[in-house]
Amino acid sequence: MVSGESEAGWAIYLDILRKPRYLNTLVLTVLVSLATTVAALAISTTAGMFLSRNRFKGRGILLSIMTLPLAFPGVVIGFLIILLGGRQGLVNQITPGHVVFAYSVVGLFLGYLYFSIPRVLLTVMAAAEKLDPELEEAARTLGASPYRVVVNVILPGLMPSLVAAGAIAFATAMGAFGTAFTLATNIDVIPMVIYTEFTLSANIAMAAALSIVLGIVTWALLLIARSLSGTTVAAGG
Amino acid sequence: MTFRLTNTAKTYPDGTRALLSTELTVNNGEIVSLLGPSGCGKTTLLRIIAGLETPDAGSDIWFDEDNVTSLPVERRKVGMVFQSYALFPNMSVRANIGYGLKMQKLPKQEIDARVTEVLEMCQLQKFSARAISALSGGQRQRVALARAIAPRPRLLLLDEPLSALDASLREVLRDELAVLLREFNITAIFVTHDQDEAMAIADRVAVMSNGRVVQSGTPEELYRNPNSAFVAGFVGNAMLLDGKNTGNVLILEGGELKLPSEGTGQNVFVRAEDVKIDDNGPLCGQVETITFLGTHYRIGIKGITPNLLTSVFAGQSAPKVGQRVKVAIGPEALMLLPEGAV
Lengths: 237, 342
Fold this sequence. Notes:
Helix content of chain A is 76%, strand content 0%. Chain A is an all-alpha fold. The longest helix of chain A has 34 residues, at 20-53. In chain B, the strands form five sheets. Chain B has a six-stranded mixed sheet with strand order 6-7-8-3-9-10, with helices on both faces. In chain B, strands 16-20-17-18-19 form a five-stranded antiparallel sheet, with no helix packed on it. A four-stranded antiparallel sheet of chain B has the order 2-1-4-5, with helices on one face. Chain B is built from eight helices and 21 strands.
């Protein structure tokens, strides 16, 4: 019978910090997730504001294309990235030279981003519909430029939704497995390490410790983001 | 500032004509009200003046000698009080009021001094640090007014500024607003559908109907000399005396009335306060409804015109429902207006 305990005991958590393999993986996971969150928020807020403010031919089709990844599991997203940036991928075939990014941090980032955009987009659009147009008009009668209207009225109005959508994007990226499983052959992210520790090395204690660390780090970063956004809203005046 | 608007119209892309070609002049320091039922184009006109709507080609809007027709809203220097007040929920009262000054990039001390001055004028000193969500409706209205006035706009625009308040507060704030606007000594245009509000606040009222200004004048002029059935009905609720007009005499179901002047082809109107219950009156009807309103009764009388004729009765004891009464209407109270006018 295999026991979940290891000889190291609680010191196994110290191992995570001491061994570069674990620590570097943790840092990389956090960085990729942060980059994904920022990029998803920027793209989805711009697109969401545009789509909720404008009615044009093909809007419905565009919106359905942008929300399509909702239906895909992570593995399919990873597969799509390989089709785009793998050795036989589209980019490699139409560009001269050897352009393969599917198995790098860039590929992982693009996969996570594609996965996150529809979730953030839908949240932002729902919030954008509820913004009071009179607030924007009031700011403009008071002499605010379009840029000031965005900073002083639209973003504060969207802030609760942006925090919520950003939290979903970040947490999803931190724990993403399917996409990572398909793409992370040369690089490691925490969910992948947990999987290999568990199945290949049978190092159950380390897998459990990494899972807990993943949870704590995600929770702590979300808490910080939430309290920071809270103070920026209050200091908006 | 003198405000002038000529040949201004608004047609929406779907062909709806929200505003027909309109002329309007507001003299320096004058307070003008745009009065009309919903959908008459008054809010569209106000938004065109603010720069929030683009008028049709050929329209001209002048602030003194300055043609602002193509100037965007943020550079027109107008102050606007919105129907919902549209106060920034993420800012304090003080920050809301100072927002326009901040956009003008004034030095911080000057902003503080100006905001403090406006806070005092609007009696908002003790609320200055509060969040907007912690204010009552009346306080919000004052903050909205203070915010609009703080950057010293050339023209103040108010869109139904009292409609978000409950009835008891509305009357108090109406009088307060009239005093404040005169204290600011500013040229102002405000939109309302409430004739009492228009008459209480404005120096001059422009009555609008179906996308055009049908009559403009002081509240007294509009009340005493309406130029159309619409104005007579909308300002002071005049009632049509529907009967046979022979030129000198109006023959009604309940009796005959002498007309004050030759009235062939004219409709005859009267207001409820001029319909007197009088034992020597020439008209005869039957009391159908009685409403007690504190200072007076409103009595609906049938049998004189096809509709109920309303009389304001100020006496202590009103007649009973079903009682037959005699009614008198003085010839000077009859308003003769051309048939078929808007």
